[in-house]
Amino acid sequence: MPGATVYSLESILVDLAITVPALPERGGDVLATAARTNPGGGFNLASAVVRQGVRCVYAAPHGTGRYGDVIRAALAEEGVAWTIAPRPVGDSGYCVVLVEPGGERTFVTVAGVEAGLTTDDLSGVAPRAGDAVVVSGYDLAYPGSGPVLADWLPGLPDGVLIAFDPGPMVLEVPPDRLARTLTSVDLLTLNQREARMLTGAPSVVSSDELDVGLLDAVRRAGVADGAMIVLRAGRHGCAATGGSLGRRVLAVPAPVVRAVDTTGAGDVHTAVLLARLVTGVPVEDALVDAVRAGALAVQHAGSATGPTLAELRSYAEVEGHPDG
Q: Are 55 and 8 in contact (CB under 8 A)?
């Protein structure tokens, strides 16, 4: 709907991204080939939403210190609003990201004040019907933020789209908290590794090939009846079922691209999907755009590589007419 807002409760921290020729063995060392510092975590999603011309509000804590300053400057530059004043004590956290030559990344997260969301923090968050709220498994896993979010989500007004991206921390979320969240969501989006972690399902295809059978396994894991499930498969695109798709399974292939860095690609996919859905775009078209956006994002190094609306439209035109 026009004027809709995406409220992001995916906490933002700072990425310390280090490019390595290979991961070091245990107790070993490796010489990095590059390093950079930039906002990450929930910033990937928030920035990608506003680049699609949709309002995004960041509704999680941020700190007083150099990392908090970096985050607020980046939010202001992108045009993302925030609802919570900087914490007077404590800084935002950071994440060490090891990036391998093929673009695969490995994380070590050091939480900061973003892990301490309170009920008072949420008093200024008032989504309306037609808006979306998105949360991540990282925040549900935190002992401070997790219970607050799990209590808050079921009380949101009817018509608010509740989206959940469990991420790689899915097994760190206490089972009762995870179960409550899964029964509250309208949209569950996760990659295949996370789906297998959530369900315990074995891999029946090669590690990156799209495994649509996982959709049924995820549904049986306690997801709300009628919720849409989106299964992301990197270079193989995504598959979805539920929501307005009903029992139909829709597979969306991804364009063939050379991946430079996959950091935040899933966040970009989710951001564009939400941006399209809150503006009334049919889910089939929204998923196609989300896959295209992810393909564009992985061709650039660093986080927050989501395309603008103009870039995505231009890419769609080229993809539709490959011979020019």
A: no
Cα 243 to Cα 227: distance, rounded to the nearest angstrom: 5
Residues 6+ apart with CB under 8 A from 128: 157, 159, 160
Query: Residue 319's CB: how many other CB atoms inside 10 A?
Result: 12
> Mean pLDDT in each 10-residue stretch from start to end of the chain (324 residues)?
90 94 96 94 97 98 97 98 96 94 86 97 96 98 97 98 96 97 98 94 67 93 96 95 96 90 88 98 98 94 89 84 46
Q: Characterize the bridge pairing of strands 94-99 and 12-19.
A: parallel
Contact of 272 with 48, CB cutoff 8 Å = yes
Within a 13 Å sphere around the CA of 313, how many CA atoms are in the beta-carbon half? 7
Strand order in the sheet with 55-58: 81-82, 55-58, 5-8, 132-136, 161-165, 187-191, 228-232, 238-241, 250-252
Domain parsing of the chain, residue ranges: 5-11+42-64+116-320
Q: State residue 204's pLDDT score.
A: 59
Amino acid at 198: L
Residue with tokens 């430079």: 260
E strands present in 143-299: 161-165, 187-191, 228-232, 238-241, 250-252
Q: Is 55 exposed, middle or buried (0-12, 13-18, 19+ CB in 10 A)?
A: middle
pLDDT value, residue 102: 79
CATH class of 5-11+42-64+116-320: alpha beta
Sorted by sequence, the CB contacts under 8 Å of residue 79 that are 6+ apart come out as: 50
